[in-house]
Amino acid sequence: MDNRQTLYDMAMDSGCTAAGWVGKEALICRQEVRDICAGNGCGKYGTTWSCPPGLGTLEECRAKLMLYDNFLLFSRKSDLEDSFDYEGMMEGHRAFAETAERFHEKLRKTGLDFCLLSNEGCTRCKKCTYPDAPCRFPEDQHGSLEGYGLIVADLAAAAGMKYINGKDTVTFFGMLMYNE
Ligand code: SF4
Fold first, then answer.
1. d(CA 85, CA 16)
2. pLDDT value at position 124?
3. pTM (two decimals)
C-alpha cells in the first residue's frame, strides 16, 4: 500500500482542498512568530492549552516536532462575499476545524502514531479547560501551527501549495505529523 497516497486521499476525503508534503528541514520554530501570538490578534492567546503560553515553550514545541519523521500540510479554502466578510471568515474557520476533526477520526482508526496541528489551535471542546484544569484530551489536542513558531506561508511554499487562493477567499491550514 502507498501510505502517502492513502493519507493524502484521506485528507482530501475529509474536506481538504489541497495537501502536500513538507520536509523536516522546513520546520523552523521562530521566536518572532510567538511574539506575534503574544500580541493576541486572533484572541486565542492565553485562552487554550493549544496556544501559547499553555502550549509550552518554543523549545518544547520544537522537541515535539522532532518526534515525528513525516509531515503532511493540508488546507481548506472557503469563498467569501468580499474581503470584509468577517462572518464568512468565521464560517471558513469552522468548516476547516470540522475538516480537521474528520481527518483526525479517520487517522485514529488507522492506528498511526500521529499528531495534528491546526491554524488557530484546538476547537475540540466547546470550552477549553485552560487554565483551571488539565487538557481533557492531551493526546488529541490540535496545537496551533503559529504557536509552534511556524510561518505557515513558508510551509505552504515548501509543500508546493498556495498560501493565498485568490480574491475573496480564505484558506486555513493544518499539519499531520506522523511516524510510519
Ligand atoms: S482538547 Fe479541549 S481542553 Fe484540550 S486544548 Fe483542546 S479544547 Fe482545550
1. 21
2. 86
3. 0.94
